Amino acid sequence: MAALSPRRCTALLALLVAALTAILVVPGTPALAADPEGGSKKLRANLEAAAKGYDQAKTKLAASKKRQVQLAATLKSAQGRSDLLTKRVSAVANRSYQMGRISTVMLLLNSSSPDKFVERVQGLDMLAQVDSSTLADYRTDIETIRKAQTALTAEITEQQRQVTVMERKKKQAELALAEVGGGSAGGFIDANSPAAAPAPRNSDGSWPKESCSIKDPTSSGCLTPRTLHAYQEARSDGFTHYTVCWSQRSSGEHPKGRACDFSANASTFKTSAATGSDKAYGDRLAAYFVKNADKLGVMYVIWYRQIWMPSTGWRAYSATGDAAAVHTNHVHLSML
């Protein structure tokens, strides 16, 4: 058999490499890397359901209280007008009693001249118009009072219902967090945290439904407008350390463009727990998102083995794993 030329050997080697690559890759795409956030897919699904349910109930409760204030003002105004009209209605009733049909006719017949007769007719007509208007206004205010009182009763019932829903969603979150500890924790609070500019809401106070539609400035992926707003607000308020938001994972908010990981270190994600100035930075950032949660639409914050949700406050997050899993090297932000 003739010896192969170096050129043919090179070509055959390339084909062999390609064949081996095809054998290794074609059968299927490699599974996504394990989620480094700690916890489980079930935990994150339960937390999302509890957080969204709590937020919706809270929004409805706030709207009901706002309507209650408006109805109370309407009721007070109608009652005030009704009280003033009561005296006028009493006067109309007395006049009607004193000036029956016969006395009115006699009053006209006793006119001393045609001019006086016309004058009295006009006076009686004007009096009737005034009486009719007074009675109509009175009836309108009484009906307004009745409707306002009924509506106020309905709003109080609605508020009681939403408070019950909020309490149920809080318990749902607490049960979910039991998987990773969930006990009470000291948390991270800073009364001097900057105030973020609020993200846009719907006219009823709820959050708009958003998709991962905007380029993520921290990765090759995308973000929801609300998540991008939170990221930009944090940076504008001085939190400029290394951050990555979108990433491809098997669960959680990162692949949906609704989460960001803010490193405690200025330039990278360290593989060890933050200390010193890095730890202080993380403390301040976690407190910042908590303080501005209602303005930004925060679902939860995780930092240094603790998790914060609007319904539960700070709770223990005792996940197992490296610094990323227990969140001692970065602040995790999940958005509604």
Compute the number of helices.
7
Distance between the termini: 71 Å
Major sheet summary line: 7 strands, antiparallel
- Choose one word for the global shape: elongated
Q: What's the structural domain tally?
A: 2
Oligomeric category = single chain
- For the biggest β-sheet, the strand order reads 1-8-7-6-9-5-4
Percent of residues in helices comes to 40-55%
User: Strand portion, in percent?
Assistant: 5-15%
Mean pLDDT across residues: 82
Class of secondary structure makeup: alpha+beta
SSE pattern: HHHHEEEHEEHHEEEE
Q: Find the count of extended strands (DSSP E, 2+ residues).
A: 9
Keywords: Signal
Protein name: ARB-07466-like C-terminal domain-containing protein
InterPro entries: ARB_07466-like_C (IPR058593)
Describe this structure in words.
Helix 2 packs antiparallel against helix 4 (114-177). The protein has 336 residues and is α+β, with helices and mostly antiparallel strands. Strand 7 and strand 8 (313-317) form a beta hairpin. It has helices at 6-25, 41-98, 101-109, 114-177, 225-236, 276-291, 293-296, and strands at 181-184, 214-215, 222-223, 243-244, 259-263, 298-303, 306-309, 313-317, 330-335. Residues 1-33 form the signal peptide. It comes from Actinoplanes ianthinogenes. This is ARB-07466-like C-terminal domain-containing protein.
